[in-house]
Amino acid sequence: MRRSGLLVWQILQKLKEMAVEGVSTMDLEVTAEKMMADAGAKPAFKGYYVPAAGEAFKFVLCTSVNSEIVHGMPNVKRILKEGDIVSIDTGVKLDGYYGDSAITVPIGEVSEETRKLIEVTRESLELAIDQVRPGNRLFDVCGTVEKHVRGNGFSIVREYVGHGIGTQLHEEPQVPNYVDRKNDNPRLKAGMVLAVEPMVNAGKAEAIVLKDKWTAVTKDGSNSAHFEHCIAVTENGPWVLTRP
After folding, report:
1. Which of the 8 DSSP states describes residue 79?
2. 201-210: per-residue pLDDT in tens?
3. Which residue spans within 67-226 are E strands per DSSP?
């Protein structure tokens, strides 16, 4: 999983450099797919069947721009421009194990509110990572994201959550970015790996899915940011597998 995680990190670093005004989201897709192939890895997303959509996803990346929360599809006509933000989410399968990570990249100068949205989302993930320790509960992770996001005046997407990860892309437990009392609150144990992924809206929390059956957007049209890391629970504390 460490090798998978580092490959995902390398891909996202390359895409972060590429994500400038005038580049299309399909340009990012083409680069990512080549990097995966060159590394002998399989894309985690391409070919992944989702019953709600009624079909398999067709791309190696999710590229979600501005009000798009998650599952935005690369498109040669979607040209990034000054003031945009783009969430780039990707995963790979290498030697039987998965890695999964996401970043949100500002394109040129963005508004102060948007800059704060990105920072608070990133900070909420870092704070949550520190809770991924043996003996802590799942709600310690979820509640940390919720407290930081709400404390800064933003809202948390409830329809989409993080997850366990390993030999499957999505494993138990689900990892919401809020405390969901209807769900179990398992104690974290060494050897578990969680994909924690705050999805945070500048406006209200409500999300809707577009007619393409994939792209989730904010109902009020406000911007949304997304960060994700895979974190292993170890006796020595959290080990982020998707960065050096």
Report:
1. B
2. 999 999 999 9
3. 68-70, 85-94, 97-106, 155-156, 162-164, 171-175, 193-196, 199-201, 207-209, 216-218, 224-226
CATH 3.90.230.10 matches 2-240:
yes
Q: What's the pLDDT tens digit per position in 185-200?
A: 999 999 999 999 999 9
Whole-model pTM: value is 0.97
From the list 70, 36, 63, 60, the residue with the least C-alpha distance to 157 is: 70
Q: Which amino acid is at 97?
A: Y
Average pLDDT, the chain: 98
User: What does the alpha-carbon distance between residue 138 and residue 196 come to, in Å, rounded to a whole number?
Assistant: 11
d(CA 118, CA 128): 16
- Checking if the pLDDT of 183 tops 90, the result is no
Sign of CA dihedral 217, 161, 88, 109: positive
The residues with which 193 forms a beta bridge, in sequence order, are 232
Strand order in the sheet with 229-234: 171-175, 162-164, 193-196, 229-234, 237-240
Q: List the chain domain ranges.
A: 2-240
Beta-ladder partners of 68: 217
